[in-house]
Amino acid sequence: MPIACLDSRALIRISGPDARSFLHNLLTQDVETLQPGELRFGALLSPPGRLLFDLFIWGEEDGVILDVAADRRDALVQRLSMYQLRSSVEVMPMPDAVFVAWGADKPAGFIDDPRLPALGGRRWGDQSETDATEADWQAHRLALGVPDPAADTLQDKTYPIEADFDLLNGIDFHKGCFIGQETTSRMKRRGTIKNRMMAITFDGPAPERGAEVLNGELRAGEVMTGAEGRAIALMRLDRMNGELTVEGRPARVEKPAWIPDL
Questions:
Q1: Which Pfam families match (predicted)?
Q2: DSSP strand E in 70-203: where?
Q3: pLDDT per residue over 133-185, tens digit each?
């Protein structure tokens, strides 16, 4: 089973008597019922309901650990400190690394990725034997058609449902209030979802980020990140069928099994 260290991720520990209730009122995921050793996926949104930070949430006996994009960790620490007010919590960056494993058998110490079983497992710590690279892991994720919110979304512009958070166990619609809940719940309840991140395939290298996916002469989507022959694109659901092109090359949407018929 390949194991890789994710240099693109970093950790924050939230501790103190109010750690769980503090995060529970902010994040899209239920934190109060999170058990020690359990891992959940969620996000911190802006008040209008757009994505600011994607998060993996690790339960501890005396607090919570957040697994976040490394280049956004300081910004998240600052924002959490702004929300802290009178809550009895301590927000501290951690030096430990994040590791992922995928394949046939999950190594000891790895917890199942809460988004999708095929993504494998995740752990944090100060050391782990690795035999793969982060690029290998990203290729595996891309092959499953799973977006990487840190890379594939536009900060404070993308709604979490557009990034498939509702399909990847990233939103608890029954937990009660969180920042941006009103917009998120309304989109889900009314079915007013016009765009979703989908995998597209094509021949040759990945198009530049922001390249248009066209359906005939109509704009059908926008490429985010990708690799040879495959990319994640934010697609209009009403224009995914038909003769698609990107940078003049034929393209098609490849819907993975974890996405229902839309």
A1: Beta-barrel_CAF17_C
A2: 90-94, 97-101, 111-112, 121-125, 195-202
A3: 999 999 999 999 999 999 999 889 999 999 999 999 999 999 889 999 999 99
